[in-house]
Amino acid sequence: MTAFTQAVPAGAAFRMLVAETARDLFPGYFALVMATGVVSIACHLLGLRLVAVPLVGIAWAAYLVLWGLTLVRLVRFPRRIVEDLSNHQRAPGFFTLVAGTCVLGTQTAVVTGAQGVAAWLWYFGLGLWFVVMYAFFTAVTIRARKPTLAAGINGAWLIAAVATQSIVVLKGTLGAAAPPPPAVQFLCLAFFMIGSMLYLAIIPLIFYRLTFVRLSALDFGPPYWINMGAVAITTLAGSILLLRSTTWPLLADFVPFLRGFTLFFWAAATWWIPFLIALTLWRYLVRRETLRYEPTLWGMVFPLGMYTTGTLQLSRALDLPFLAVVPGVFIHLALLAWGLMFLGLLGRIGGTLLQACRRR
User: Which domain holds residue 220?
Assistant: First the structure.
C-alpha cells in the first residue's frame, strides 16, 4: 500500500485504506464466505449448534464487507477487474462470488431457517453464475497472448464446477418442503450435469500439470485442494437430488444415474485427500516453504468442510449409516483449519490497521 501523508484526518485515512484494499482485493476472497458457510452447515447437521450459529454472523459480515470492497473496486478500479478477468491465474477466483452467495444462502436456510432470504440469494447467485461463467471463459479464450498450461492452470479453475453445483445445493435445500416447478427441477438436474462436465473437462489438465510438469514448492498452492472440494460439493449436490427424488417427480427416472454418479464423485474426493496431504507436507516440511496467512488458504478449509457435509448427506441418500463415522472425524479437522485461518485473518487485519495508524 502507498504511504499516508502526515496529519491526514482519520476519515480520509480510512477512505484511503478502503480504496487501497479494494484496489488489490484478491478476486477469490469470497472463499472465506464459502469456508465459513460450509463449516457452519456441517456443525449444524452434526448437532454443534453453539458453533454453527455464530458462524452465520461471521459469514454474513464477511460477505457484506467483501461485496462493499468489490463494488468500490468496480467503480474506482475497473481496469484492475478487467485485467484480473483475463488473467488465467486470478480470474477463476471470480467464481467464488457465485459459490459464496449460494453457500451463504444454504447456510442461512439450514442454520437459521430464513428461507425467504435464502431464496433471494439463490436468484442472485443464479444471475451471477451467468455473468461470471461466460465473462471468464470468453475473456480467457479471446486473450491474444495466452500462458502455457504450466503457468496458466491450477486447482482454482475447478471453482467453476463448485459455483455450478452450489446453485443445485441451495435450490435443493429450499425444495425440501415442497417441490419447485418442473422447469426448476430440470434446471437443477441440468446444472448438476454441467458442474460434472466442467470437473471432468478441467481435472485432466490439472492432473497432467501435477504429474508431467516440473513442480516447485511455490507452484503447489492451496487452490489445488479444490481438486477435492469440487467433487465433494458434487457429491453433496447429487445426494440432495437423491433425497428430493421422492418429491420432485422429474428426478424419478434419473435416480439410478444419480446414485452411481454421486458415489463416483465421492470416491474421487476421497482418493484426492491422502495425495493432497502428501503434497502439502512436501511443500511445508520437505521444501520448508513458510506457512503464512494468505487468502488462498481458505481454498483448503472449504474442501474439508464440504467433504464433511457431502459424506454425511451421501450416507443418508444411499442409506449407508457406516459412512456417518467419517464426518464425525472430519468436522474436527475442518474446525481446526477454519480457526487457524480466522486467527490469521484477524492478524492480517490488525497488522494492516496498525500500519495505517503509524503512517498517519
Answer: 10-359
Q: Is 343 exposed, middle or buried (0-12, 13-18, 19+ CB in 10 A)?
A: exposed
pLDDT in tens, 156-180: 999 999 999 999 999 999 988 889 9
What is the torsional sign of CA 119, 124, 130, 136? negative
pTM: 0.93
> Does residue 5 lie in a domain region?
no
- Over the stretch 251-306, which tens digit does the pLDDT of each residue have? 999 999 999 999 999 999 999 999 999 999 988 888 888 888 888 899 999 999 99
- By the 10 Å C-beta count (0-12 exposed, 13-18 middle, 19+ buried), 188 is classed as buried
235, 312 in Cβ contact below 8 A? no
CATH code: domain of residue 102: 1.50.10.150
Question: Are 228 and 274 contacting, i.e. CB atoms less than 8 angstroms apart?
Answer: no
